[in-house]
Amino acid sequence: MAGISSKAARSLRNRKKYNGKEEQEEEFTDGSGLDWLDYGARMYDPQLGVWHNPDPLAEKFYEWSPYTYTYDEPVKHIDLDGRSGDVTLDKKNKTITVEQHFVFYGSKANSKLSGKIATGIASQWNGAHGKVKEGGVTYKVKFRITYETVSVADAKKMASTNKDIKNNFYRVEDLGTASSFSQVGGNAGVLNTQDDLGGSTTPSHEDGHLMGLQHTNSGQTPNDRPDIMTARNTQVNPRWSKVGPSNDIDPNFRRVNQQNISSVFSNVTFDANGHADIGHITNRIYDQNGN
Predict the structure, then answer these.
(1) Which of the chain's termini has less CB crowding within 10 Å, N or C?
(2) Exposure string over 149-169, b if 16+ CB within 10 A, otherwise e
(3) Which residues neighbour 220 within 8 Å (Cβ) at sequence distance 6 or greater?
(4) Residue range 84-93: average pLDDT?
(5) Are strands 167-173 and 188-192 parallel, antiparallel or unpaired?
(6) Residue 56 CA: distances (Å) to CA of 2, 30, 40, 51, 219
(7) Are residues 218 and 263 in contact, defined by beta-carbon separation less than 8 angstroms?
(8) One-letter-per-residue 3-state SS of 268-286
(9) Above pLDDT 70, what percent of the chain?
(10) What b/e readout covers 170-192, taking b as 16+ CB neighbours within 10 angstroms?
(11) Are strands 131-134 and 137-149 parallel, antiparallel or unpaired?
């Protein structure tokens, strides 16, 4: 079969415009139109540079107007369907942003605790001031963390249809002496309130697992501060241990370091548009016992 010839067709109109979205034109009976771009979830007016509908995911981003486009940073981000932002390389400012959205559910999940967990994760991972090289260029790594607290029923519903790599599902429960855990390279886990979730390094440690990191054995010398992936109960140098006869690590000494950042990106491949996924989607929802 022969290919389409522009000569045979005289001229072929390209309706795919900015960001590859179809321009709505001549939709009225008189041949006129609004010239809006169809993003699927909402319509964009390129003449005014605004949306005419609120972001359907606006409840995830309370700090932004529901009519905002990509956090008001179109150089760093693109919006593929009018909903959530997608990460791209910022070549001008030489930054790479890792975006994660945490969905907290369970009998002990509440908005106040969720906020403390999310703030701690962002603070500790950004505190490393990490850098990675891509294409011979050094980029600063930033972590953008958002969150919401939902019912178990809503978490199940969300997980059943989720296709967004940024979404991570955490059940929050009081599990006694059991440990918090996460899928390595997945997007689900369980957080135990006995681990002082709002004031410790545990959530950041678990987030490391979601990004594919395994346990390390750091903290063996006075100058070797434990990194974020050193597990609880690891025997460390007394400088990094709990008070008492045991040399078990004091988790509060753990810090995200450059090696952790490098490990996160060790198997990450960016596409031609500068996008990449970290981990994979499992969408597992755990029961109240962590099963």
Answers:
(1) N
(2) bbebeebeebbeebebbbbbb
(3) 236, 237
(4) 60
(5) parallel
(6) 43, 32, 11, 12, 46
(7) no
(8) CCCCCCCCCCCCCCCCCCC
(9) 72
(10) bbbbebeeebbbbbebbbbbbbb
(11) antiparallel
Q: Which one-letter amino acid corresponds to residue 121? A: I
Coil, helix or strand for 163?
coil
Q: What confidence tens digit (pLDDT) does each residue in 1-13 have? A: 344 333 444 544 5
Tokens of 211: 């990004």
d(CA 84, CA 104): 18
Q: What are phi and psi of 141, to 5 degrees?
A: -105, 130
Give the strands of the sheet with 43-45, arranged side by side.
Answer: 22-24, 36-38, 43-45, 50-51
All domains of the chain, ordered by start, with CATH?
18-71 (no CATH), 86-277 (3.40.390.10)
Cα(42)–Cα(113) distance, integer angstroms: 33
For 14, the token pair is: 């390209």
- Output the CA angle 147-151-154, nearest 5 degrees: 85
